[in-house]
From TrEMBL:
Gene3D superfamilies: 3.90.1150.200
InterPro entries: YdhG-like
Phylogenetic classification of the source organism: Bacteria, Bacillati, Bacillota, Bacilli, Bacillales
Organism encoding this protein: Cohnella nanjingensis
Domain of life: Bacteria
Protein name: DUF1801 domain-containing protein
Chain ranges of the YdhG-like domain: 23-112
Amino acid sequence: MDGNKIAYVSVDDYISNYPPAVQQILQTLRKEIQASAPDAKEKISYQMPTFDLQGSLVHFAAYKHHIGFYPGADGIAAFQAELSGYKGAKGSVQFPIDKPLPYGLIAKIVKYRAARNLERAEAKRSGNKKS
């Protein structure tokens, strides 16, 4: 998403716009997320691949020098020690594109976020039933 204004219609469409080496990284990341949260649904949100499971789960995007991974502030905070070697912000982390992505760590973050989303959804359902 380096300044272009392409309106992506699907995750496949997004991935297809990158060079083959980057496509391979994105496809592997996508498969890791799918395996870690098999009930999550894919969509494009904020013009990047997004997984939704009872609300936004994670987003990812390719840039010139890194892959951006966006598990939200709680996903970053819960794995702060493991993510300390990477550049990031409150709700995001940047994985250098020229180094292997930490797929095991990404899987743990996705599973954590999925559990949190399902807990929140259940609490909301339970709370609404009491009303």
